[in-house]
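Please, does this match?
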Amino acid sequence: MEVGERLRQIRIHKGFTQSELVEGICSVTYISRIEGGKVKPSGRFIREVADKLGVLPSLIIESDNEQAELEVAKIYDSYKQGTPLDDSTQSFLGMTALENHSPKTFFQIYTMLIEHASSQENPAIQAEEYVRRSENLLPSEPEPHDRDVALDYYRALSRFYYSKQQFEKAYRYEKIIEKHLDEDCPGIDRARNYFNLALTRTQLDDDADLELAFHYGSQALDIFRQTDHQKGVADCLTTLSIITHRMGEFENALEYLNELDDEALGYLSVSEDETDGHAKLTKRAVIDYNYGRIYQKMGDAEQALVYFEKSLELDTLAQNEKFTTPVLTRLAELYAEQKNWERTEYYLNHAFDVAEQYDLPGSKVLLLHKQAHLHKVKGDEPAYEKEMQKAIQLASDWSFTVDVKEISTELADHYYEVRAYKMAAKYYRLALERD
């Protein structure tokens, strides 16, 4: 990389415009010509802009790959010990990612950048760019000597895709992790992998997916219990209750939830860095939500409402608004069954607002589907068709294959019933293309 291009990359990563950087140093024309490779910068210019950028002059003048890789390794080790990335370190990693390095160094760089970007308040664009660049650059079959850092990178991708509700991609990376875990790897690592495999498969809608999810969840629970890992046990019991509920085994689902008593949740308050109890509130909210789902399936709407409202209240207290779309949707369903349209609209609109604010495409697809059904119940078929088409388009944009197939088939059936055969054929074809 030439000096001018290196300077441009450092300036961009540091957040300076050309005019801001050279104010009191030189003209904008001069730095433009340097960055364009038309003139060679003077030593005085390099020293002054380096000082303003907060970097060593040598970083601008030339790239030392060996030294850069040593520095990345040092940052990575510190990061793994819990040291967060500051702005200058993030800028260094972003610039270093544009140079030529070993796969190991790139695994380290992109693990940190993806996780850091994903943890920010509005992570979508930057995190997605790091994911796109790294997937184009890095292999899914790492060399044996890069295995450990590669697994950290795949875990970062799995978490990213799960947070974006792209569960098939999250599952794919967990399978890569499973493949490359050593037989003698720590039991906790394998248990977490099994748990994540269960979690991702649970989000898909095929019966075989649920059976596989139950298999992985049970294996994870056994390992967590053997190692007395209380958090892992609690997470597995919660997930297994969801799986058995989805399988229609409601009594088993209740048994798993009943194991999650206050004693089993006590570790959450103890392990928190703060004493506000947010982690315990969050776990309690998840448990109450799943009690609500089970009672809803068992036809006990009154009990379901009690648990859903408790879950929503707890998530609100824990400041977890991002995770409230499922319970808001369930509340809307229950009030729709009671033909309380005002409350139904209230909870659906609230859920739409949350999904829009936090960019949750999977939730948006589900909510559009629910909204469409509400229009159909009211006899507004054009609005039903419009919302269904929007749901299909969004699901297609995000490659939510199962949703595309399910909603397309339903819409095709509707068009067939109203004798709109051309439209029915269009959506049957779309559904078949997803097989």
